[in-house]
Amino acid sequence: MADQTIRSTLSIVLAAGLGTRMKSARPKVLHPVAGRPLVDHVLAAVAAAGVDDTVVVIGDGMDDLAAAVRPHATAIQKRRLGTAHALLAARHRIAADPPDDLIILFGDTPLITAETVNAMLDRRRQADAPGVVVLGFEPTDPGAYGRLILADDDRLEAIVEARDASPEQLAVRLCNSGVMVIDGARALTWLERIDNDNAKGEYYLTDIVAIARADGAGAAVVIGDPDEVLGVNSRAELAVAEAITQTRLRARAMAGGATLSDPTTVYFSWDTELGSDVTVGPNVVFGPGVTVADGVEIRAFCHIEGAHVATGSVIGPFARLRPGAQLDRNVRIGNFVEVKAADLGAGVKVNHLSYVGDSTVGAGANIGAGTITCNYDGHLKSRTVIGDGAFIGSNTALVAPVTIGDGAIIGAGSAVAKDVAADALAVTRAPQKEIAGWARRFNEHQAAEKRRRAKAASKAGK
Question: Which alpha helices (H) appear in 204-263, and where do they start and end?
Fold first, then answer.
């Protein structure tokens, strides 16, 4: 039976690696998957598992990483001498308030789940109370992974590195992920007994299994999904993690009641929220910060980021909603329309070829094709306000700051730089001029000139 008492937990996320194979000035764990840094995926899983506190171990000079993981505390590993050495960078936090359970994770394994963390904690809290619980997995190709050697009773006897393994041990398919839960009361004692008597002169966390067993504490294994322990060390592995994450997010969207007409072409951000009866066409991309209410249709080739779309709206095809786009119920955004930092009221129609930025558009307003809100003067951005039920004719430029009153009509082709009163008509087109017979005379002249040039070219060819 598992221990039912309330237990304290501390997680330490190791994130000091330089990630040289990424060939990037950015710390490896800050590269994004589904719009979220690798390390943030790990921290989210830890939080969802209900862990009390977390420390992130970073390298010296990684100030941007320290800022990114706040409010979590950080500890600095000044020299990179192995995983056990990295853990000891957080020595003072462990010693100050030893947890019942110390969880060791890695900042470059973004696919780990809260369910797996909890499974490991549950195993640690079983009646036999193993001093160490290791997360194992069975990859298709065990290759260079360390092997988990089990006793007849399935207790963990040892972790053997592939380069040190016998042929019999290399045949074992159960591998070490590096993720562990350790008895927090004895963690420091065990960590301090790990030496660096090996070819690399490093302090390996895997040695803690032998030390715990020598103290009679025992060790156990929880077997997890190989996808969850995928470490990202290169751009290629980053792409693999992205693909797995997108598969998860697509499945979540469909399980929540959304229809994806071509799921493999739809890309989600980690925080995309879709309501029920949402339909998403092919080749749609959701950036961070998108919420879509029930009954919305998003047609093909749309890009949506930092936007909210209310019930009954139809978006696209080929539309772009940029950060700050807030669409009320039953809004229609058509092809080649861009909306940015704009509030669109219920029933607004912007059907094609328009830009609406830094604007407030009242309920029921109609924005004609080719309309743009001129929100930037080269120095400052200003806002356009369009009233309820206003009608903006095609090919109109609204030069902000400007207000169009409720029910006003703007004639097609106008450039409006002054406020327009409610229910008024505003037209800025030049007066139409007509010259009788001009087109006929022009056409006759040009046709004659064309014949003359053809004749001249024919003579020159002879």
Answer: 208-214, 235-255
Fold of 259-426: UDP N-Acetylglucosamine Acyltransferase; domain 1 (2.160.10)
Pairing of strands 36-37, 32-33: antiparallel
Spacing of C-alpha 230 from chain mean position? 17
Q: Catalytic residue at 352?
A: yes
Find out whether 159 and 149 touch, Cβ atoms under 8 Å: yes
DSSP letter at 360 equals: E
Domain ranges (residues) in the chain: 9-229, 259-426
Closest listed residue to residue 361, CA positions, set 406, 415, 315:
406
């499974």: which residue's tokens? Answer: 119
- pTM assigned to the model: 0.90
Which residue in the list 41, 85, 308, 352 is annotated as catalytic? Answer: 352
Q: Is the peptide bond before 142 cis (omega within 30 degrees of 0)?
A: no
Dihedral pair phi/psi, residue 92, rounded to 5°? -65, -35
Cα-based angle 191, 196, 199 (whole degrees, multiple of 5): 145
Q: Could you tell me how many residues make up the chain?
A: 462
> Out of 3.40.50.2300, 3.30.1360.200, 3.40.50.1860, 3.90.550.10, which CATH number does the structure's domain 9-229 have?
3.90.550.10
What pLDDT, in 10s, does the model give residues 96-121?
Answer: 999 999 999 999 999 999 999 999 99
DSSP 430: P
Higher pLDDT, 197 or 389: 389
